[in-house]
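STRUCTURE REQUEST FORM
Protein name: Transposase
Source organism: Paracoccus alkanivorans
Requested output: structure tokens
Priority: standard
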Amino acid sequence: MISPAGNFRIYLAAEPVDFRKGMDGLAAIVQSEFDLDPFSGAIFVFRAKRADRLKLVVWDGTGLVLVYKRIEGAGFVWPRTRDGVSVASDPYF
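Status: completed
Returned output:
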């Protein structure tokens, strides 16, 4: 069974990423751009340019896990960003 530990953090990447990247490419983004440890057990959430796809990367203690979700219809509601920062005044945020 793959599941994160009871205490975990969730990090949401505000800007879309290249969805051709796999778990190693996304883990590299976590290290180089966010200055975080992808092997900490935290859940890192990335979105595609179209808001209908998400990828989650998490270390489960034995290896990296990549979860891919595509939603049909309107897509996920995502906070607007300005200069790479989520805008808290967004009514959907």
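Reviewer notes: The two ends are 32 Å apart (CA to CA). The helical segments are 23-32.
Form closed.
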